[in-house]
Design brief:
Helix content: 40-55%
Oligomer: single chain
Radius of gyration: 43 Å
Number of strands: 0
Distance between the termini: 133 Å
Shape: rod-shaped
């Protein structure tokens, strides 16, 4: 038997009751938390701007709104009405003055 060698399992160290009752661990964690919040506030926004990451759906919605605004501000030229090729060169039978005598138009004279 070697006197410096111990047999069996090591026993668990005793709980530091004075530190638990005195709330030393709680104050230590509060200090660490306040330090991490201060560091985060200093590192996160040095110029005061907040960066918001956009989702894919939000990016598409913004792009659609921009294109709709551009179409509203600069509308494309109106398309020519569809007319069959064989009727493109046929003149109209009614004249604008004939349309003025229509029964459905009220006489404003």
């Amino acid at each position: 038997v070697i006197p410096s060698f111990a047999y069996g399992k090591k026993s668990r160290p005793s709980t530091p009751i004075a530190s638990v009752v005195g709330n030393h661990y709680g104050t230590e964690q509060e200090e660490a938390l306040s330090f991490s919040y201060k560091k985060l506030a200093e590192d996160d926004r040095p110029n005061g701007k907040r960066v918001i990451k956009l989702t894919v759906a939000c990016q598409k919605q913004i792009a659609n709104a921009k294109s709709a605004r551009q179409l509203h501000d600069n509308p494309p030229p109106p398309k020519e009405c569809f007319k069959m090729a064989k009727f493109k060169n046929v003149p109209a039978r009614m004249k604008p003055e004939d349309m003025g005598r229509s029964a459905s138009v009220p006489n404003l004279h």
